[in-house]
Amino acid sequence: MAEKRCYTVAELQEILGVSRPTVYSLLKRNEFRWIQLDGGKYRISKKSFDDWLDKQPSEE
């Protein structure tokens, strides 16, 4: 099976432990690359998101 190249909004909610509106806020700020499909669904670039996440300051 091919490795996933995109995340869904629900997957980002789970990964980050945040609400749906928070994910949409990140999308609006163009923190990472994403596309909007027909029907209004979003797909977020896995590589772009993973790179962004790796650059976030850790809470210690």
TrEMBL record:
One of its GO terms (molecular function) is DNA binding. It holds the Pfam family HTH_17. InterPro entries: DNA-bd_dom_put_sf, HTH_17, SinI_DNA-bd. It comes from the Bacteria. NCBIfam families: excise. This is Helix-turn-helix domain-containing protein. The lineage of its organism: Bacteria, Bacillati, Bacillota, Clostridia, Eubacteriales.
